[in-house]
Amino acid sequence: MSRDHAQSAETPFLELLARGASADAYEQPVLLARAEGGHADRIDALERAKHLALRVRSELEGRRRREAELSALFETAHDLAGLRDLDAVLRAIVQRARSLLGTDVAYLSLNDPERGDTYMRVTEGSVAARFQQLRLGMGEGLGGLVAQTARPYVTDDYFKDARFQHTGTIDAGVRDEGLVAILGVPLMLGHHVIGVLFAADRRARVFEREQIALLGSFAALASAAIDTANLLAETRSALAGLERANEIIRDRSGVIERASDVHDRLAELVLRGGGVHDVAAAVSQVLDGTVEFTDAAAAPEYALEASRADGHVVRHKDDWIAAVAAGDELFGALVLRGHPGLDPVDQLTLERAAMVTSLLLLARRSAAEAEQRVRGELLDDLLDARDRDPRLLDDRARRLHADLSAAHVVLVARLDATAADADQEAVARRRLWAAASHLAATRHGLAAARDGGTVLLLPLEDGDEATDLARRTARHLGRAVHEAVTVGASAPVRDLAARPDTVAAAHTEAGRCLDALRLLGRCGDGAAAEDFGFLGLLLAGDQNVPGFVERTIGQVVAYDERRGTELVRTLDAYFSCGMSPARTKEALHVHVNTVAQRLERVGRLLGDDWQSPERALEIQLALKLHRLSVPTRH
User: pLDDT tens digits for 504-539?
Assistant: First the structure.
C-alpha cells in the first residue's frame, strides 16, 4: 500500500479527533468506504487508521480526565487554604467528587460522639428527604464497615451484599434514593475515623482503582478541612476570651492605653511565633517588674493550686502567682516578683498573659505531636511494607525533609530499667518516644513507637558507621530520658522508597543486635551486627559473609594480592598446626625465620591482639570462609 493511500486513510480520523467526535463516529469512514465498494487495501488502511485514532482518542480522554482530577484537587486545596465556611468547603468537595467520578449521588457523613451515631452532613444529587436526614448507629451499613476497618469498601449491589450490617432504617433510605452501587472511603484524623465520604449510582457499577484513590484524596482534604475548622474554632474561642478581657480593660479610662499595649504585644507575639519567655519579657515591661515562667515544681505549691482552682492570680509574700494551665494539665506559672501592690487591671494582665502562655505551649505541643504522628505513620508504612508506590513514599518523605534515596540505618531503642508499675513504665516509654521523635526531626529521619520500644530511621552521613550512629543515639536518648537506653542498629540500607521491604528486614536485624547487647550485659550501649565479629553473621539479616571476611582478614588478603606473598596460607597453616611456628615451617617447607617474619607482618596488619582467643577464633572462621569463597586451583 502506498504512502498516499495511508495518508488519505488517516485524514477523516484526524478530522474526527480535531472536533472531538464520539467513539461511534469513527465507524463511519469505514462503513462509507465499504458502501462505495472501495478497494480492500483502502478498507484495511481505514481499519488500521480507525484503531490508531481510537487509541489516540482514549489517551487524550485519559489525560483530560487526569487534568480535571488534578484541577479539582488543586481547587479544593485552594478552598481549604482560604477556609472561611466549613460547610461551603465540604459541599465543594462532595460536588467535585460526584462530578469527576460521574456518579448519580455523592454524600458525606460525620460521627457524632455525643449521641453515639453518624449523621448526613452534606449530600449532592440526592432526591429523597428520608435519605438526606438519616442518622445511623455506629457500625451499621456500608459506612459502619468502612469506619470499623478504616479502609475503603465498595459494593456493586447494596441490597445483595452481606458483608455489612443491614438495618431497616438504612435500607429504607437507600431504597428511597434508589441507590445500587456504593463506594465509601474513610475520613481520618490521625488513626481515628471521623466520618465517611460516599459516591453512589442508581445502577450496578464497578468502581475502578483510580476512582477509589481519587475519592480517597477528596476524603483526605475533607478531613483536613474539618481539622482546620476545629482549630480555627478553638483559636476564635481563645481570641474571644482575649477580646472580652480587652473590653474590661477599656472600661478603665486610666489604663486604656497600657491595656491596649499589652493586648497588641501579646497578639504580635502569637502571630510572629513568639515563645513563653517572650511573653514573660513583654509583660515585665508593661507591669514594670520581673515576670518569669517557672515549672510547676519550682512554684509555691499552695499559691499555684489556688490560682489554678479559681483562675486568678494569687499573692505569695511579695510575689504574684498566675497558674499556666489547660484543663486538668498544669504547665507551670507566671511569677511577678517583688511587686506587692497590684491593681485589678494589672492582675488581669498577668492572668491573660498566663492564658496566652498556655495557648502557646499547647500549640507548640500540638504541632510537634502532629509532625511526630506523620513521621511515625510513614515509618510504620515502611516497616509493614503497606504502601509500595515509590513516588508516594518519596513525596511523603520530602514533606518531612527526609530523603529516602540516601543511606539510612534502622535503630531499635529500649529502656533498660524496669518500672515499678505499668503507669510508670508507660510514662517512661512516652519520654523515650518524645526524645526519639525530637532526634528524628532534627536529623531529617523518622521515628515510631513499636513493640514496647522505639524504632528510628536515621540517615547515615558520609564517613559515618552504623556502630557510631548507634552509640551516639544511645547516649543522646539516655541523657534525654535520664535512664540507660540500649540501641541496636542495622547495616546501612538504601533506596527505601523503591524497596520498602528492606526496612522491615533491617528492623529485624537491629532487634537482634539489641537482644544480643542485653544478653551480653552491655545495657546502655549501642552496636551494629559488625561489632559482634562472627556472631554478627547470625545477627545480620543478609548474612554478609564477604563483609565479615573483609573486616577480619581483608588487610592480609589485600597485602598478598599486592605483593604476591603467602600470608594467608601461612596463617592457615599456623592455626592448623596448633599455633606452633616449628610445625608450621615443616608444613610449609620453609625456614622457621620465614614463618616468624610472616607472622610479624600479620601482626602489623591485624593488630597486636590478633592471637588473643577471641580474635584468633574470628580469624580462623574468616580463613575458612575465605577458602570456601576462592575457586579451587587445578
Answer: 878 887 887 777 677 667 788 888 867 665 454 444
Q: How many CB atoms lie within 10 A of CB 226?
A: 20
Q: Which three cell numbers stand for residue 166?
A: 443491614
> Which 8-state DSSP code applies to residue 493?
B
Q: What letter would DSSP give residue 463?
A: T
Distances (CA, A) of 616 to 305, 447, 593, 621: 67, 39, 22, 9
- pLDDT tens-digit readout, 546-563: 766 787 788 888 898 898
Cα separation, 574 vs 581, whole angstroms: 7
Euclidean distance between CA atoms 467 and 85, whole angstroms: 53
Taking the C-alpha atoms of 65, 67, 69 and 75 in order, what is their torsion angle to the nearest 10 degrees?
A: -150
The CA distances from residue 213 to 183, 220, 364, in Å, are: 11, 11, 33
pTM of the complete model: 0.37
- Rounded Cα gap, residues 337 and 343, in angstroms: 15
Residue type, 268: E
pLDDT per residue over 211-227, tens digit each?
888 888 888 888 888 88
Whole-Å CA distances, 192 to 147, 149, 188, 432, 446: 9, 11, 6, 24, 21
Top pLDDT among 39 and 175 is at: 175
